[in-house]
Design a protein that fits this description.
- Helix content is 22%, strand content 29%.
- It is of the alpha+beta class.
- The chain has a three-stranded antiparallel sheet with strand order 2-1-3, covered by helices on one side.
- The mean pLDDT is 79.
- Bound molecules: zinc ion (ZN).
Length: 49
């Protein structure tokens, strides 16, 4: 089963919960037009690293 994360499009950080990403964007990108998406990472496969 894959772990889902919420990814900030502006700095590339991953968050486990939408609330965490929301808090992050409000603090780090308060004026930005923030786009984010859900990413699914399969166990043993981390193409982003
Ligand atoms: Zn960010």
């Amino acid at each position: 089963m894959a772990n889902r994360h919420y990814r900030c499009n502006l700095c590339g950080r991953d968050f486990d919960a939408h609330d965490q990403l929301k808090t992050h964007t409000e603090r780090r990108h308060p004026k930005a037009d923030v786009h984010w998406w859900v990413v699914a990472e399969e166990p043993g496969s981390l193409p982003f690293e």
